[in-house]
C-alpha cells in the first residue's frame, strides 16, 4: 500500500470532522477485511463483562493521574509536557525481545528513573521527567526546535544496550513541532488551545471549552507529523491516533476543566495502536484469522506459531485491517455498554441515573492498561509490529 504524502495538509469538508472520517474509514476497512472479523456475540459478551467490572470499580478520567509518571498539576507546564510526550508517542516495541522466545528482556530499551527501569511508552515519560529533573527545559519550544542530536541522545539514554527506536525520526518530528510552536503560537501549546486575546494579553486557561473534533482538525493542519492517514482499497483511510490522544490526555489530566475542557469529547475514537488490538482479541471483541496469527508470530499455516516475529510495513493491508477493525470494535463495545446502562436505568424506573460512563477514550485507556498490566497473560496473542511515527 502507498501511504499518501503526509507533509501536505489533508483536505476535508468543514461539515465533517476528522473523527467522522476515522469512523467512516473503520466501517470501510471492516467491510473489506480478509483476516479480521468483529464477532457480534463476542462484542455482547465482552460488553457485559466490562460493564460488570465498571460497576464494581468505576473507570474514569481521574485514572490518568494515578499513573506515577504523569503530571499531577494543572498548569501551562503540564500542557507543554503532554504536547511533547504525544509528539513523541510512537514505536516503542523492542527489536531484541521477541514474545515467545526466552532471553532478550534484559536488553529491551529502558529508562532508569528514580531507581526503577521503565520500558515502552513509560520509558518516554521517564526520560522526559528525568531530563526536567536534570534542569533541561525539554518541554519548551525553543529546546524542542534547537537542541542538538547529542543532547536528545542523552535525554533518551537507555539503561540497556538497546537505544530508543526511530531516534532520527523523533528528532525530525520534535524539531518540526518546536518550530511550529515558535512561529505560530508564541512558543507554547497553551496558545494553540487558548489563543492570545486581541489586546495582546494571554487568554486565561478558563476560557470557553474547545471543541474536541475541531481541535483534532487544527492539530492535523498545524503539525504535519500528526497526519495519520493511509490508502486502502483505492481510498484514503483515517486513523489520527496521536492527534486524538493529545486531546484525550489533556481532557483526562485537567479533568475536563481549564486547558483540558472540551465539548463533544465523546466524538473521539479509540487510538489505533498495537496494544489495544491485542486486548480486544483477548476479550473476544476481535477475531484474527489463523493466517494472520501465524503471520504475526512469524510462522505459517503449516508450521504454526514460531518464537520469532514479523514486521508489517506501514500501510500494509494487514496493518490497516488491524487498526481499522480495532476502532470499530471499540465503537461497538461502547454502544453495547451504553445499551446495558440504559436498560438498567429503565428497569430501575430512571431513578438510579447512569451507572457507568463510557466513551471510546476511557475504553481505550482501560484496554491499554489491561494489555500492559497483563503482558504475560496476553502473550499468546501476537501483537503487530510496524515501525512508524503514527503510533
Mean pLDDT: 89
Shape: globular
Major sheet details: 2 strands, antiparallel
N-to-C span = 18 Å
Low-pLDDT runs: 1-13, 99-104, 198-203, 303-308
Residues in helix, %: 40-55%
Number of strands: 8
Helix run count: 14
The sequence of SSEs as H and E is HEHHEEHHHHHEHEEHEHEHHH
Beta-strand percent range:
5-15%
Strand order of the largest sheet: 1-8
Task: Specify Rg, calculated over alpha carbons.
Answer: 21 Å
Task: Please identify the structural class as seen in this structure.
Answer: mainly alpha
Protein name: Queuosine 5'-phosphate N-glycosylase/hydrolase
Family: Belongs to the QNG1 protein family.
Keywords: Hydrolase
Catalytic activity: queuosine 5'-phosphate + H2O = queuine + D-ribose 5-phosphate
Could you describe the 3D structure shown?
With 391 residues, the chain is mostly helical. It is 45% helix and 6% strand. It contains 14 helices and eight strands. The protein has helices at 18-31, 40-56, 76-87, 120-133, 141-146, 149-155, 167-184, 189-193, 212-222, 241-253, 276-282, 290-297, 317-347, 360-373, and strands at 36-37, 110-113, 116-119, 210-211, 229-232, 235-238, 262-263, 287-288. The strands form four sheets. Strands 1-8 form a two-stranded antiparallel ribbon. Strands 2-3 form a two-stranded antiparallel ribbon. A hairpin with a 2-residue loop joins strand 5 (229-232) and strand 6. Helix 2 packs across helix 13 (317-347), helix 3 (76-87) packs antiparallel against helix 10 (241-253) and helix 9 crosses helix 10. The chain is globular. It starts with 17 loop residues before the first helix and ends in an 18-residue tail after the last helix. Mean pLDDT is 89; it is low at 1-13, 99-104, 198-203 and 303-308. Belongs to the QNG1 protein family. It catalyses: queuosine 5'-phosphate + H2O = queuine + D-ribose 5-phosphate. Its EC number is 3.2.2.-. Keywords: Hydrolase. This is Queuosine 5'-phosphate N-glycosylase/hydrolase.
Amino acid at each position: 500500500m502507498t501511504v499518501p504524502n503526509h507533509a501536505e495538509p489533508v483536505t476535508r469538508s468543514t461539515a465533517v470532522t476528522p473523527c467522522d472520517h476515522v469512523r467512516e474509514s473503520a466501517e470501510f476497512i471492516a467491510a473489506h477485511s480478509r483476516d479480521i472479523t468483529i464477532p457480534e456475540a463476542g462484542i455482547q459478551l465482552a460488553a457485559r463483562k466490562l460493564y460488570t467490572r465498571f460497576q464494581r470499580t468505576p473507570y474514569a478520567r481521574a485514572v490518568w493521574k494515578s499513573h506515577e509518571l504523569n503530571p499531577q498539576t494543572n498548569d501551562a507546564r503540564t500542557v507543554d509536557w503532554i504536547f511533547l510526550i504525544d509528539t513523541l508517542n510512537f514505536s516503542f516495541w523492542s527489536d531484541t525481545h521477541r514474545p515467545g522466545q526466552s532471553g532478550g528482556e534484559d536488553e529491551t530499551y529502558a529508562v532508569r528513573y528514580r531507581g526503577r527501569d521503565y520500558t515502552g511508552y513509560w520509558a518516554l515519560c521517564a526520560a522526559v521527567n528525568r531530563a526536567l529533573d536534570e534542569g533541561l527545559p525539554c518541554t519548551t519550544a525553543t529546546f524542542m526546535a534547537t537542541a542538538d542530536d547529542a543532547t536528545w541522545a542523552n535525554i533518551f539514554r537507555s539503561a540497556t544496550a538497546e537505544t530508543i527506536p526511530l531516534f532520527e525520526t523523533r528528532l525530525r518530528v520534535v524539531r518540526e513541532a518546536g518550530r511550529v510552536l515558535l512561529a505560530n503560537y508564541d512558543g507554547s501549546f497553551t496558545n494553540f488551545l487558548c489563543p492570545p486575546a486581541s489586546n495582546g494579553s494571554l487568554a486565561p486557561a478558563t476560557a470557553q471549552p474547545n471543541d474536541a473534533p475541531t481541535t483534532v482538525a487544527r492539530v492535523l493542519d498545524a503539525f504535519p507529523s500528526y497526519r495519520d492517514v493511509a490508502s486502502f482499497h483505492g481510498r484514503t483511510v483515517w486513523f489520527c491516533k496521536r492527534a486524538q490522544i493529545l486531546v484525550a490526555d489533556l481532557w483526562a489530566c485537567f479533568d475536563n476543566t481549564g486547558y483540558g475542557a472540551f465539548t463533544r469529547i465523546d466524538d473521539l475514537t479509540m487510538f489505533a495502536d498495537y496494544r489495544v488490538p491485542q486486548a480486544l482479541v483477548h476479550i473476544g471483541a476481535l477475531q484474527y484469522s489463523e493466517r494472520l496469527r501465524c503471520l504475526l508470530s512469524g510462522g505459517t499455516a503449516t508450521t504454526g506459531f514460531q518464537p520469532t516475529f514479523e514486521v508489517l510495513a506501514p500501510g500494509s493491508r494487514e496493518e490497516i485491517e488491524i487498526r481499522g477493525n480495532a476502532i470499530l470494535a471499540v465503537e461497538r463495545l461502547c454502544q453495547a455498554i451504553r445499551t446495558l446502562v440504559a436498560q438498567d436505568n429503565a428497569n430501575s424506573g430512571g431513578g438510579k441515573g447512569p451507572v457507568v460512563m463510557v466513551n471510546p477514550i476511557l475504553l481505550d485507556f482501560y484496554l491499554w492498561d489491561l494489555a500492559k498490566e497483563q503482558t504475560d497473560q496476553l502473550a499468546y496473542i501476537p501483537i503487530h509490529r510496524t515501525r512508524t511515527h503514527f503510533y
